[in-house]
Amino acid sequence: MSGVQRKSCSCAAAVLTLLLPLSVSAALAQTAKQPPQQRLGAPTPPPPAPAPRTLDELIALLDAEAPKAGVSPAIVRKVLAGFEREPEVVGLAASQTEHERTVGQYLTLLVTPERIELGRGKLAEMAGVLDKVESRFGVDRHVLVALWGIESRFGTAQGTRPVIRALATLAIDDPRRPQFWRAELLQALKIIERGDIAPEQMLGSWAGAMGHTQFMPSTFNRFAFDFDGDGRRDIWGSAADGLASAANYIAHSGWQRGETWGVEVVLPDGFDFALSDPRTMKPLEFWRERGVSAAGGAAWPASKLEHRLLLPAGAKGPAFLVNRNFTAVLRYNPAVSYALAVAHLGDRIAGRAAIHTAWPSTPAMARADRQELQQRLTDRGMETGGVDGIIGSLTRTAIRAYQKAIGQAEDGHPSLDLLERLRNEP
Ligand SMILES: [Ca+2]
Q1: Nearest Cα to 147, choosing from 347, 413, 365?
Q2: How many whole angstroms separate alpha carbon 52 and alpha carbon 215?
Q3: How wide is the angle at C-alpha 425 spanned by C-alphas 421 and 426, nearest 5°?
Q4: Which of 59, 181, 345, 364 could bridge across to 171 with cysteines, CB 3.0–4.6 Å?
């Protein structure tokens, strides 16, 4: 999807880990910087409307919005008849807090020996389907199996809540984003009207992420794929449909057939960290000429794609060269920690090595610390795109400028050390 520009890196993202299915955290994380409706595959945002306070008010709003979403008002009333709110869902939405984790901690949590083993088993078990899915969509099978393992633990942790009930409850009772939930509810009704699944079988997380792939309803309507040919896009019951749906999404996000996502690298002494600016997308030869080598003595990759340098933990942590296939995984969930977990788990399932360079032991920054960092950079006349605790590309550029001014490696990485330096500088 070349027309879709990557949004400023959500680094709520880099540290955002919720005890929730990941695509839900993605959907919610995106509400911070961009309307979630802008997510790839999502519908056009509905016009602003007041939050409904009762089921009748919700149905009236849905009636008005249904035709534009391609949903018949009849299905709205049929499915929502007898609806009762699910108070637990409201509690989950309200109590949702960020669990601050570094990228290293996040990967340790997700890329476990058990998940690698399960993934290898699935790779063998699903080989026939993966042959066909890979052939059709061009997306690397190891990345697909890894994504499956992280989203739903290979289909075994899909969520057990009735999605319509959860979304309708949130559309009434979550005052922070009623339109987001209502838009997803309409998309869920559209799925039911088309006949892919019965309302009572449409299960998912408290926030509406569904099936093997943990698709939100809007994503389902763009990318769900009936791969086993039974006439239903069944991402709940059919692993083949799930894998093909995920592949369809990743392929539409720009995945290049026959390529991997990138490689861990080692940087030479005296490396110019200003080159870690994400806008520096260069052929692999450019990086080799600057002394960059594959980590662990691995062979230099033979990719024709341009790569950028990714330093998820700053100059002192592991370094990666990543290409547009990594960006395609980021379309699924904009957290660098997420995309790296999928990419690395895929590598491990394929039998490749663990990450060589140790993750720094520096703690994660709390949101308040990130906001203070932004405020102090702003006070110095730098543009951070707001003091919202989300380290986007503007904040990273500001950090680089500050690092350059004080003679530090320009890795653009926010840290408590850097914040301490800002506090102590007049
Ligand atoms: Ca099917």
Answers
A1: 347
A2: 25
A3: 160
A4: 181
Residue type, 376: R
Q: What is the pLDDT of residues 329-381, one digit of tens each?
A: 999 999 999 999 999 999 999 999 999 999 999 888 999 999 999 999 999 99
Residue 39 buriedness (CB in 10 A; 0-12 / 13-18 / 19+)? buried
Q: How far is the CA of 248 from the centre of ligand 1 (A)?
A: 14
- Give the pLDDT of residue 92: 86
Q: What is the C-alpha separation between 333 and 405, in angstroms, rounded?
A: 34
Cα 313 to Cα 103: distance, rounded to the nearest angstrom: 7
Q: What's the pLDDT band for 42 if we cut at 50, 70, 90? A: very low
Higher pLDDT, 48 or 215: 215
pLDDT, position 420: 96
Whole-angstrom distance, CA of residue 395 vs CA of residue 412: 8
| Lookup: tokens for 398 | 């500001």
- Rounded to the nearest angstrom, the distance between the alpha carbon of 247 and the centre of ligand 1 is 15
Residues with CB under 5 A from ligand 1 (ion): 226, 228, 230, 232, 234, 238, 241
Is residue 236 within 8 Å of residue 209, measured between CB atoms?
Answer: no
Tokens 């509810």, located at residue: 185
Residue with tokens 């110019």: 272
Helix or strand holding residue 373 (H, E): helix 367-379
- The closest of 261, 336, 263 to 296, measured between CA atoms, is 263
Q: How far does residue 202's CA lie from ligand 1's centre (Å)? A: 15
Q: How far is the CA of 240 from the centre of ligand 1 (A)?
A: 8
Which two tokens mark 180?
A: 């987001």
* pLDDT attached to residue 91: 85
Q: What is residue 81's DSSP assignment?
A: T
End-to-end CA distance of the chain: 46
